[in-house]
C-alpha cells in the first residue's frame, strides 16, 4: 500500500536545499527519537523516496515530488473547474462533480457513482484532470509507475494523503 504511516513521510520536511535529510531536525520537528528517524529513513530508502550516501540521506526525484505535494497539501483545495462525471457510453453528465480530494474520496467511499464508471474515468481522464487542476505530480508519478492502477488504489492514496495532512497539522503547527 502506498503512503502508510504518516509520520514516516513527514521526515522529508527535514530536508535542506541540497536535498540532505537532517536527522536531528527531523527528530525535533516530529517529536520522535533520532533512532526512530533512522529506522524510518531506512524504510524510505526501500520505498525510493531517499537514497543513502556516505555522508547521509538525500531526497530522490520521487522524494522531491512527494515533498512538493506535502508542502502544498490541501486536500480540500478547490480546483478552478470541477471534474464532471459522465456516463461514458452516452456522454450524459451524471449530476455529480468534485473539485477536491475530500469530495472525490466521499464519492468513492459512499459509492455515489457506479464503480465501473469511476474506473473508466480514472483510466481515461481523471489523472490528467488531477495533474492539471490540482498539480499533484506525485500521484501522476505513482500512476506511471503502476503503483496506483485503479479506483481502490486511488481511494487508499487519498485516505493516506488526508491522514498525512492531519498528522502534519497536529505535529507541525
TrEMBL record:
Q: ArnR1-like winged helix-turn-helix domain location, by residue?
A: 31-74
- Write down the SUPFAM superfamilies for this protein, in alphabetical order: Winged helix' DNA-binding domain
List the InterPro entries hit by this protein, alphabetically: ArnR1-like_HTH, WH-like_DNA-bd_sf, WH_DNA-bd_sf
For this entry, the protein name equals DeoR family transcriptional regulator
Its taxonomic placement starts with: Archaea, Thermoproteota, Thermoprotei, Desulfurococcales, Desulfurococcaceae
Under the heading Pfam families, the entry gives: HTH_45 (PF14947)
The protein's organism comes out as: Staphylothermus marinus
Highest taxon in the source lineage: Archaea
Amino acid at each position: 500500500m502506498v503512503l502508510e504511516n504518516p509520520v514516516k513521510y513527514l521526515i522529508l520536511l527535514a530536508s535542506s536545499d541540497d536535498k540532505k535529510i537532517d536527522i536531528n531536525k527531523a527528530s525535533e520537528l516530529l517529536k520522535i527519537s533520532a533512532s526512530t528517524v533512522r529506522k524510518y529513513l531506512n524504510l524510505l530508502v526501500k520505498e525510493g523516496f531517499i537514497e543513502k550516501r556516505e555522508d547521509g540521506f538525500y531526497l530522490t526525484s520521487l522524494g522531491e515530488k512527494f515533498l512538493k505535494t506535502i508542502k502544498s497539501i490541501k486536500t480540500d483545495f478547490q480546483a478552478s473547474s470541477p471534474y464532471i462525471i459522465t456516463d461514458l457510453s452516452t456522454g450524459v453528465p451524471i449530476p455529480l462533480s468534485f473539485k477536491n480530494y475530500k469530495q472525490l474520496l466521499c464519492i468513492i467511499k459512499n459509492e455515489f457513482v457506479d464503480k465501473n464508471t469511476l474506473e473508466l474515468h480514472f483510466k481515461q481522464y481523471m489523472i490528467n484532470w488531477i495533474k492539471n487542476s490540482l498539480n499533484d505530480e506525485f500521484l501522476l508519478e505513482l500512476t506511471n509507475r503502476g503503483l496506483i492502477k485503479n479506483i481502490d488504489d486511488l481511494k487508499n492514496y487519498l485516505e493516506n494523503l488526508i491522514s498525512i495532512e492531519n498528522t502534519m497539522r497536529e505535529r507541525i503547527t
